[in-house]
Amino acid sequence: MRTRFRSVRPAVAPVAPVALAAARLVAAGLAAAGLVGAAACSTAASGSGGERTGPIQVVAAENFWGSIAQQLGGTRVAVTSIIDSPDADPHDYEPTPAAGRAIAVADLVLVNGVGYDTWASKLVQANPAPHRTVLTVGELVGVPAGGNPHRWYNPDDVRRVIAGLTADYQRIDPAGAAYYDQQRAAFEGTGLAGYRQVIEQIKARYAGTPVGASESIFAMTAPALGLHLVTPPGLLTAVSQGTEPAAADKATADAQITSRAITVYVYNSQNATPDVQSQVAQARAVGIPVTAITETLTPATAPFQDWQTAQLVALRDALARATGR
User: Fold this and answer.
1) Considering only the top CATH level, what class is 194-323?
2) Given pLDDT bands bounded at 50, 70 and 90, which one contains residue 27?
């Protein structure tokens, strides 16, 4: 279990192991609400001719994927995001009976995978439903166990999820196939336009610029932006996983900051451990611009693209201050 230290929000209290939480959900959720029957009867959303008479019921483990799912599905889907607060840690989240009920009757469940939200996969397994589609992002993009789980920070993986979700919607609701194509075209062509524009701006102006980061959440974004992330990979992974970084990696990262070998320092403000807070302070002390990113939508009501674009603009501005261009 990874312990979080938030610099801008109260830390989440320790939670029970996920396995116990899932077992408690099966007992409290399924027995109390008769959800096995509800899942079996979910085909009531279809008419006698096989066409759906109601929206696709979508449950996303996290709101960043839920935001994309809603925008792609429009009026033909109803999306529930289980992790919908910046103060909830997807790694350590303890599911509620309501989460179990939502997954039990869902037509499509969207899970990040790669060890990020194992509680969600356990709930899916605890509530079997033959009709249900499960899209696991890690499996879709081919990331093996132990890989970097922060796939929503990889623009190429976001594209793959968009394509995968659209295909799943069209299979579940064939009558809406043309509508889903229109939604995808609008989202990719207009919704993500600003997001992609800032990515291209950073790549064009700052390709090769050395930067530092607090953890692996930035490890896929940096190469997508053309930036050279020099922080030791072992430190990035350790902080992300909540383990103690190797002393040599910590020493290297500290030296990169104090010697100004990095231009900008990027940190996850939802995982600001004492070591990360120390590095932030060191960077500011020597005049290195610091910019923050978060794991979940901030604010919680922001669309995926607005959240990501705002963070990218802040990074672009920090690079401009540091380089004078």
Assistant:
1) alpha beta
2) very low
Question: What confidence tens digit (pLDDT) does each residue in 53-94 have?
Answer: 899 999 999 999 999 999 999 999 999 999 988 777 777 788
The span from the CA of 69 to the CA of 67, in Å, is: 5
HSE-CB of 311 using CA atoms within 13 angstroms: 24
Four-way CATH pick for 18-191: 3.30.1370.10, 3.40.50.300, 3.40.50.1980, 3.30.710.10: 3.40.50.1980
Domain positions in the chain: 18-191, 194-323
Each residue of 157-168: b (16+ CB within 10 Å) or e? bbeebbebbbeb
What does the alpha-carbon distance between residue 250 and residue 243 come to, in Å, rounded to a whole number?
13
| Identity of the residue numbered 270 | Q
Round to whole Å and give the CA distance between 173 and 26.
29
CA distances from 56 to 108, 170, 179, 279, 315 (A): 7, 11, 13, 46, 37
* Six token digits for residue 259: 């010697």
Lowest mean pLDDT among 29-33, 60-64, 86-90, 215-219: 29-33
The structure tokens listed for 224 are 């997508």
Residue 46 has what DSSP assignment? B
CA distance linking residue 325 with residue 320, whole number of Å = 5
Residue type present at position 178:
A
State the sign of the Cα–Cα–Cα–Cα dihedral 128, 129, 132, 133: positive
Q: How far is residue 269's CA from residue 252's CA, in Å, rounded to a whole number?
A: 22
Chain-centroid distance of CA 285 in Å reads: 31
**C-alpha dihedral sign at 154, 155, 160, 164:** positive
In angstroms, the CA 275 to CA 259 distance is 18
Token look-up 């060191």 returns: 282
18-191 and 194-323 agree in CATH topology: yes
pLDDT of residue 95: 87
